[in-house]
Design goal:
The structure holds two protein chains of two kinds. In chain A, a hairpin with a 3-residue loop joins strand 6 and strand 7. Chain A is elongated and about 100 Å long. Chain A has a five-stranded parallel beta sheet, sandwiched between helices. A two-stranded antiparallel ribbon of chain A has the order 3-4. A two-stranded antiparallel ribbon of chain A has the order 6-7. In chain A, helix 1 packs across helix 4. Chain A folds into three domains: about 180 residues, P-loop containing nucleotide triphosphate hydrolases (Rossmann fold, 3-Layer(aba) Sandwich), CATH 3.40.50; about 45 residues; about 100 residues. By secondary structure, chain A is of the alpha/beta class. In chain A, about 50% of the residues lie in helices and about 10% in strands. Chain B is an alpha/beta fold. Chain B folds into three domains: about 70 residues; about 120 residues, no CATH class; about 170 residues, von Willebrand factor, type A domain (Rossmann fold, 3-Layer(aba) Sandwich). The longest helix of chain B has about 30 residues. Chain B is elongated and about 100 Å long. Classes of the chains: A alpha/beta, B alpha/beta.
């Protein structure tokens, strides 16, 4: 999806990381008694309508169902699993939410073969190696005063064990999100592309907002992050994962909503052209296509038409720009002869 | 809100959860708790809000959302009470007119809310939510009306007729009309309960029956075909999701030097932790040959339906149909919807005399080189070759080039080898030969095959 104001704002916020706290050992709150996202601007949390309006301000036109899911996710402190066709605005919702609540956004793209060392944490091997070397050099010095081996060992036990400790921890997105003291938006993109085993790592993060590192202990988020998971339904997700989430399915929008979205995303479009092109796209979706155009394609097309200084849809122009809307050769071939018909099929398409 | 009202609301919500379960929206106790928490957060005042929040917490897939919406509309539908509508204008009723029957009083005064409430109470009393079968609808209607006190109304009507005054006659008419409307309402009410709590049970039972129905005997009737379509698609998708993804497993005993060295960094270069090499389990590549000849005419629809669904979900698959000759049907399956595809395959090649030898020859001439050691060849057919040469040399060639041949035969095992069947001869070259006449069998076999039978 093209970068809107939401994206720009989220990018500006960046990934700021606080210094590591001693949270692992002195955990202020156990699982189940998390500090609520109290610092979120309460103006946007009053009601579902307030969320709709707030998202509108940052350039995301949400249906009530979307806003309600977000509302419930914040109130119940649960992750949201967002499903829907490619390009209906799943990822954009997370970006817009981050912008709305002024939270940093941490994004993790899933893929086949993603494992915990890329998603949770990794040890800084190089530094650990240097540490052992320093240790070797210093060891004889430190233990010089001890007469017997036993005494030396006792002294050794008395020293702090630094090797597996927080300074040597390289945080990956999930751990980063847990360490954001003021909360953040954690976007786990295309979870369905990851392996089944990876889902299991997520369960602890998603239900208790904590990560267990065997060598150190359990780290709990001071403020639970607002988690978005997106899925294109490449495979069915496990029930355990689904159960922990609020489910949101974003359908293709109805004409009115789509017109508002286009108007927001492409501010200098004329109302009549907007109406015409949304009608055309809606009619196109009823046709039997491999990949029906979704919202992002509509917006791209609107932008393309603006660049071409179009004031109204004309068959030739539609034919020339069809590749913006349709991504398969066969689809384009199937639609081309019907362009005239689709442009005429106005009244019924609008009702649908 | 008072505790009593809270209790009533909680019961309503629990009833709704039961109705959801009946339409196959799975609800675990944890989800039920979430639903209650959600409701506690937002209350019952705003219908849209209630609906959207419950949907967010309870429905976990696009299909479930659809079921949820339908169920919510049904459950929280405000039933229009025609009993009160017909009598709306008649507001002047006193105790004497109703003859002491509260129900009659409500009918006469056109008290819709009262009637609706009375019906809910009566329904709760006779436990109408326990309805299970369509045949129970009439008895339940009757029991609800009885519990509402329809007897008293009937008696009152009879009394009024006996008294015979003009006003009495008028009252009796109004009561009779109201009673009639009330009966309709009750019947509609029970229908709704049936829709909510029992209808899906019926469908599920039918689906279960269908899965075990032998598809080779008679033609599939169109109703069953519709249901089978969704059943097969679900099945194929489940299988594909489970097996088409690339998987890895560790090969014990082969050291992954690179990763072991990297791990050893943490220990000053001493390899404390071994890392073993993993091997990738390849995605299955399928070649499916489907018999559509006269002898399997009845099963052909069913086999093609499965072929079509498999083609939708498995990435690397090539499909061929044969009877007298063998033709690739990938294009047809890719480009048309299921009914059209099945019809055009059958039009093109179906219902001819089977000739297995000739079909194998066609296949081998053009496509034998497509087979490699990762390809599994499925042959769906009855191996009845009309006494023509079965061309064992060709099936041996296929066996040699591919990973395995799996033969699924719609005929029961006792028929194999009888008459012109060469199943037993072909079976020498297959890794698995199984009977497969029902959807249930088909699913089990394919799952078994993908999991265990294949030589690696």
């Amino acid at each position: 999806m093209p970068a809107g104001p939401a994206l720009a704002k989220a990018a500006r916020l960046g990934f700021t990381h606080t210094e590591f706290s001693k949270r692992a050992r002195a955990n202020p709150c156990g699982p189940g008694e998390l500090v609520p996202l109290s610092h979120l601007n309460p103006k946007h949390l009053e009601s579902v309508d307030a969320i709709v309006a707030g998202l509108g301000e940052v350039g995301y036109i949400a249906s009530r169902r979307i806003a309600t899911a977000l509302f419930m996710a914040i109130k119940l402190q649960k992750p949201i699993l967002v499903e829907g066709f490619a390009g209906v605005g799943k990822t954009e919702l997370a970006l817009a939410t981050a912008a709305l609540f002024d939270l940093p956004l941490i994004r993790m793209q899933c893929y086949e073969g993603l494992d915990e060392s890329k998603a949770l944490y990794e040890w800084k091997y190089g530094k650990q190696l240097l540490y052992t070397q320093i240790l070797k050099d210093r060891m004889s010095e430190a233990l010089a005063g001890e007469g017997s081996l036993d005494a030396a060992m006792n002294k050794l036990h008395g020293m702090g064990d630094m090797f597996f400790s927080e300074p040597f921890l390289e945080p990956r997105p999930l751990l980063k999100a847990m360490r954001e003291d003021n909360g953040c938006v954690l976007l786990i993109d295309e979870i369905d592309k990851s392996d089944e085993a990876f889902e299991a790592y997520l369960l602890e993060v998603l239900s208790a907002f904590q990560i267990t590192i065997p060598e150190i202990g359990t780290m709990t988020a001071k403020t639970p992050p607002l988690v978005f998971l997106t899925s294109n339904n490449v495979r069915d997700l496990g029930d355990a994962l689904k159960r922990r989430c609020i489910h949101l399915h974003i359908p293709l929008p109805d004409p009115q909503l789509e017109m508002r979205i286009v108007a927001t995303r492409v501010p200098n479009i004329e109302a009549s052209l907007n109406e015409q092109l949304v009608r055309f796209v809606q009619a196109l979706r009823t046709a039997d296509l491999r990949k029906p155009p979704s919202i992002s394609e509509t917006v791209d097309w609107a932008r393309a038409l603006i660049l071409l200084h179009a004031n109204a849809l004309e068959p030739t122009m539609v034919r020339e720009t069809l590749n913006v809307l349709l991504k398969f050769e066969q689809d384009i071939a199937a639609v081309e002869p019907q362009i005239g018909k689709l442009m005429d099929a106005k009244p019924r398409a609008v009702k649908a | 809100m008072t505790t009593a009202a809270d209790g009533a609301m909680q019961r309503t919500l629990e009833n709704f959860l039961r109705a959801l379960k009946a339409v196959e929206v799975q609800i675990t106790p944890a989800e039920a708790i979430d639903a209650h928490r959600a409701v506690a957060e937002i209350g019952y005042a705003d219908r849209e809000l209630l609906r959207d929040s419950l949907c967010a917490t309870l429905a976990k897939s696009a299909v479930e959302v659809e079921h949820f919406d339908h169920c919510f509309d049904n459950f929280f539908a405000r039933q229009e009470f025609s009993a009160s509508e017909t009598l709306e204008s008649a507001g002047d009723a006193d105790d004497d007119d109703s003859g002491g029957s509260p129900l009659a009083a409500m009918i006469l005064s056109g008290d819709a809310t009262g009637l609706a409430h009375a019906m809910e109470v009566a329904a709760a009393k006779v436990e109408a939510t326990n309805i299970r079968a369509a045949t129970q609808r009439r008895p339940f209607t009757r029991r609800i009306l009885d519990a509402m006190g329809i007897d008293a109304v009937e008696k009152r009507i009879a009394d009024l007729h006996r008294r015979g005054g003009e006003r009495d006659g008028d009252l009796a008419d109004r009561l009779a009309k109201g009673r009639k409307a009330l009966m309709d309402d009750a019947s509609r009410f029970v229908d709704r309960q049936y829709d909510l709590y029992a209808k899906e049970n019926g469908r599920r039972t039918r689906e279960d029956l269908l899965a075990d129905k032998n598809m080779t005997g008679e033609r599939i009737d169109p109703d069953d075909f519709q249901m089978m379509k969704s059943l097969v698609r679900r099945m194929a998708k489940r299988l594909a999701a489970k097996y088409s993804r690339q998987q890895k497993r560790s090969r014990k005993g082969v050291l992954d030097v690179r990763r072991t060295l990297r791990k050893s960094m943490g220990y000053g270069g001493i390899p404390f932790e071994m890392v073993w090499k993993t091997e990738t389990i390849e995605k299955p590549k399928l070649v499916v040959l489907c018999d559509v000849s006269k002898s399997v005419a009845a099963a052909a629809h069913f086999l093609l339906l499965f072929l079509y669904s498999l083609n939708e979900v498995v990435e690397s698959m090539h499909a061929y149909a044969f009877s007298g000759r063998c033709v690739p049907v990938d294009d047809i399956l890719d480009e048309s919807n299921v009914e059209v595809a099945i019809k055009s395959v059958l039009d093109r090649i179906g219902y001819q005399q089977t000739d297995y030898g000739r079909s194998l020859e066609d296949f081998c001439l053009e496509h034998l080189s497509d087979l490699d050691r990762r390809t599994t060849v499925f042959i769906l057919g009855d191996a009845r070759s009309n006494h023509a040469d079965p061309r064992l040399d060709l099936i041996r060639a296929i066996q040699k080039r591919s990973r395995a041949i799996i033969w699924l035969n719609p005929e029961p095992e006792s028929f194999w080898g009888s008459g012109d069947s060469v199943m037993k001869v072909y079976a020498r070259f297959t890794a698995v030969t199984k009977q497969c006449g029902t959807l249930g069998q088909l699913e089990r076999i394919i799952e078994d095959v993908l999991r265990t039978y294949l030589p690696r």
